[in-house]
């Protein structure tokens, strides 16, 4: 679902019909809509050349804004996405200047497991347009893991996410906008997942 939600926000119907997931990956835009959910899903890319094949995790494949580790003689020939097990929940949040044909001002993909006791496990949080290139936020993930859906402090999680983003980017002209907004996105994503988990309980 998280990949479908993200794909639905890309460009227009015409762009979605002509564009490819591989193109979105190799372009490596900081605002690419598919990179956060693919990283959160622990996707891997297979690169093929005349010398053979190699496989990298998508997060490792990205080398910077609009930069990847693909070589001049390589093609991206396969994207591998592991299946999620039982009791996993996902969400994708995006804020843009408008509803359609919108480049993300900020986005966030969340993948997490909630066990039978309502405890978060294996949480993966990946924002877009928040850091030089999409990457996971381990401090935020650590803060969510082990918490209960009944009493997780969403305000505190939001503060941790904001602080972690700034620790990566430093203070920039966009920080006064993005710092509170990324906190809102992680809270919205968690609220949606918690509601879904309680409904399924």
From TrEMBL:
Residues 1-86 form the FAD-binding PCMH-type domain. InterPro entries: CO_DH_flav_C, CO_DH_flav_C_dom_sf, Diverse_Substr_Oxidored, FAD-bd_PCMH, FAD-bd_PCMH-like_sf, FAD-bd_PCMH_sub2, Mopterin_DH_FAD-bd. GO terms for molecular function: FAD binding; oxidoreductase activity. SMART domains: CO_deh_flav_C. Keywords: FAD, Flavoprotein, Oxidoreductase. Pfam families: CO_deh_flav_C, FAD_binding_5. This is FAD-binding PCMH-type domain-containing protein. It comes from marine sediment metagenome.
């Amino acid at each position: 679902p998280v990949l479908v939600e993200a794909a639905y926000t890309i460009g227009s119907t015409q762009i979605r019909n002509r564009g490819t997931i591989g193109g979105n990956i190799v372009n490596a835009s900081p605002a690419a809509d598919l990179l956060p959910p693919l990283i959160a899903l622990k996707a891997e890319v297979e690169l093929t050349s005349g010398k053979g094949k190699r496989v990298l995790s998508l997060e490792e494949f990205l080398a910077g804004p609009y930069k990847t580790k693909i070589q001049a003689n390589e093609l991206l020939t396969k994207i591998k996405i592991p299946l999620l097990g039982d009791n996993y929940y996902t969400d994708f949040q995006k804020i843009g200047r408008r509803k359609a044909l919108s480049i993300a001002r900020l986005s966030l993909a969340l993948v997490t497991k909630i066990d039978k006791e309502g405890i978060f496990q294996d949480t993966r949080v990946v924002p877009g347009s928040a850091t030089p290139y999409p990457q996971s936020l381990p401090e935020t993930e650590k803060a969510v893991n082990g918490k209960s859906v009944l009493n997780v402090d969403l305000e505190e999680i939001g503060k941790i996410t904001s602080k972690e983003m700034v620790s990566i980017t430093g203070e920039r002209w966009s920080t006064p906008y993005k710092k509170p907004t990324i906190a809102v996105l992680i809270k919205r994503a968690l609220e949606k997942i918690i509601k879904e988990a309680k409904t399924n309980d």
